[in-house]
Amino acid sequence: MFLRPNPPFVYFVCFVVTCLGLRADPLTKQLDIDFGRDVASRNLKGLAARSDGRLLPGPVFTDLTGPKIGDILWNLEALGNNRFLVGTGPDGKVQEITYNPKDSTYTVREVADVDETHAISLLPLPDGALLVGTSPTAALYVVKDGKTTARVPLPADSVFDLLALPDGTVLAATGNPGKIYKLDLKKLAAAGVIEGKVENDTLLSDRGITLFGEIRDRNVRRLARLSDGRIVAGSSPKGNLYSFAAAGGAPLFLQENRDAEVVDLLPDAEGGFHAALVFTPGDALRLAAKPPAETKDDSRAPDRDTTKPAFAGRSTVVRFPADGFPESVMGKPNVSFYRLARHGDWLLLTAGEQGDTFGYDPAARRSLTFAGSASAQLNDLAVLDDGRYLLLRNNAPGLALMAFNGAAERSLETKRLDLGQAGDLGAVRFPRLRGLDESALQLEISTNYGNDELEGWSPWTKLTLRDGGFTADSLRGRYVRYRLTLPGKAADFQLDKAVQYHRPQNRRPSLSDFRIFPPNQGIVPAPEPAPTVVATLGQLLFPSQRDNKDEPSPGQRRGALLNSQVIPQTGVQVVYWSVNDPDGDALAYTFSIRPDTAQGDWTDLTVGTTDSFVQFETGGLAEGLYLTRLNVAEQAPRPAGQRITYTFETDSLLVDRTPPVITGTQISRADGKLLVTITGRDALALLEGAEFVLNNGVRDVVMHPVDGLLDAREESFRLELPEARAAGATSVEIILYDQTGNASSARVPLK
Question: Basic and acidic residues bias: where (predicted)?
């Protein structure tokens, strides 16, 4: 069935084809400033950068100062009334943090000290007691009023997670082996302090600890309870997701993975959940290296790329709907996720290894980058109130505050952006602003000709709003950075990604090939390719500034020329050249000659041609050596005042119409061979060779002189011919050639 295209589509295609045929300006380039890609988390303040490059209102991140909590901070549990618990290592202490929101300070009080080196899981109990899980020996502690009332070791290495159930029991997830135990808190609290390590599950039942379920993977890393009562578990080092019935038992697979760790699980009200997974190659480390020790002499410190990530894995968030298949909703390379939370309809994620915080907007199905920390990892977070969160950070350890409840000022600084080559900078334009006027923006720029992150940058220059774009005079550079500042009172806005217009440096063309053909040869130029009269889908999707259906590209012209026919043509000289312009400018050529012995004017043999060759008659030129030059001039669309004209001194041209002079011939016979020798000389050119034609029909060509080196204007050439081939011949005609195609001949009788 034939389908007729509708008229609007036809008009659109005709418009695009017409535009492709118009001469486009290839000089002005565009650099997209994608805020979702080009801004690091720690350089955001009060802004959120979405993965489509747009800016939205976001949180303000503040690293808090206060007393030392510990060397390694594992988790953060809320107690209420701005009090929180933090498990630490390698001292195995549990600290109580009291946060003062008035001045954003905190105090620290030790509430527990376990025998093991790491307190990696915590659970406040309803009666005011504290349940602690430890590593590298898995043990459960019940601590009340700073005193350990019970300690029960488990046949495992670590207690990774604790989950309170509605019936008052608790699930404990262990590693090596990967098991889940159900805890009866009353029996556990009455178990007393048991030293050592229990090697048998049956010995634990009297202490209120029973096996709920187990998996074949080594560690059960995280637990969560869904709205229908099912328990979901995430493992490592495979990163599998499992589902257990409310009463426990054998698990069901929800998703199978490899080389991964399930770092957090976040249930939703619809019966589904989100899982954060970190995939790590075999040699990857989730803990970033500590900063190098300071050196007194910075000049002797080794160079290092501060932007290179220390973590080589990747992270992803997977949504598991209640009645559907799992789907990956966002992912980040070279980033390790740590915790999941909710802020309104958004997902909130803490991460490393650059202290990043991220989000996910399910309505827009886009990831978000929020303001981050100067520390390497953000391991945990807890809700305060009114859009504020308390975050746990490591390397360096401490606390931080993330506040979505407004900012006095919103700002960002981009990464170093590469324009591709040095040039003049034009305006920065925002194609669309919503909820904000252009006059409310303040944009600054810093430029550099080198790619060093710290050295060589110009002072920050404020750009002025002019005709809808932000500009400043006389800005140049190869690398750029931007600072954008918005008023804090702006609460509901969107900024599309910006565009930097720039004109790259105009670079000189280079002569890549120059040839003077042997004389007396002409070319019949092949026809140029027919112009394209239709547009392709590729041209619509990826338009080139050089698309021009009326003018073939330089590559097409050169290909057509190389397919030209070469024919003998007396008195014709062909000169060929190939010029490369790194900026793709249209070029015109003027080829000129001048006698070597004269100081007069140059004679132009072709002027302003776009061809890469010239052929001309030499009959009107006096014999001798000529100097040559090729003048290359840039053409439109580059403005006349910016065009580069450059003259190349090219190879010398020899015009020689005089044949060589034969100065002697010699005939001899020896050892059954006929020896014919000719000696000649040319006034201008080197000799090329000799052709010997016997009157018995034998013909032979000798290209190598008697002395074995063809390098002079006077040479001797010798033919050695067996007597059998010379039988019956009474004379030989000898033709002597020079390298410009001239020839002399002589007939010599054979004796």
Answer: 293-307
- CA dist 275 and 239 (Å) reads 10
Q: Which two tokens stand for residue 72?
A: 């390694």
- Give pTM, 2 decimals: 0.78
DSSP labels for 446-512? EEESS--SSSSPPPPEEPEEETTEEE-TT-EEEEEEEEEEEETT--S-EEPPEEEEEEE--PPPEEE
Q: Does domain 510-525+564-655 have CATH number 1.10.10.10?
A: no
Closest CA to 713 of 737, 744, 677: 737
Question: Quick one: tokens of 592?
Answer: 């000129």
| β-sheet bridge partners, residue 566 | 523
Q: Quote the CA–CA distance of 101 and 171 in Å, as a whole number.
A: 33
- Residue 17 is classified by DSSP as H
Give the separation between CA 288 and CA 140, rounded to whole angstroms: 29
Asked if 628 contacts 591 with a C-beta cutoff of 8 angstroms, the reply is yes
List Cβ<8 Å contacts ≥24 apart for 326-335: 326/241, 326/254, 326/255, 329/274, 329/360, 329/362, 329/365, 330/51, 330/358, 330/360, 330/367, 332/358, 332/367, 334/309, 335/309, 335/311
Between the CA of residue 135 and those of 115, 154, 289, 487, 676, what are the distances in Å?
10, 11, 22, 48, 102
Q: Measuring CA to CA, how many Å separate 263 from each of 316, 349, 399?
A: 10, 11, 20
CATH of domain 57-284+309-410: 2.130.10.10
Q: Nearest CA to 319 among 362, 354, 348?
A: 362
- In the predicted model, is pLDDT for residue 284 greater than 80? no
Amino acid 183 reads: L
Confirm if 690 and 717 have CB atoms less than 8 A apart. Answer: yes
DSSP 562: H
Which pairs count as long-range contacts for 241-249, CB under 8 Å and 24+ apart, including other chains?
241/275, 241/318, 241/320, 241/326, 242/215, 244/180, 244/212, 244/213, 248/180, 248/182, 248/211, 248/212, 248/213, 249/213
Residue 361 structure tokens: 């907007």
At residue 42, φ and ψ (nearest 5 deg) are -75, -10
With contact defined as beta carbons under 8 Å apart, do 84 and 97 qualify? yes
Average pLDDT over residues 376-401: 92
Once rounded to an integer, what is the mean pLDDT over residues 102-111? 92
Architecture, CATH, for domain 661-749: Sandwich (2.60)
pLDDT in tens, 397-418: 999 999 998 778 899 999 999 9
Distances (CA, A) of 192 to 141, 377, 684: 10, 37, 114
Domains of the chain, residue spans: 57-284+309-410, 416-504, 510-525+564-655, 661-749
C-alpha 607/C-alpha 612 separation (Å) is 12
| In the predicted structure, residue 137 carries a pLDDT above the cut 90 | yes
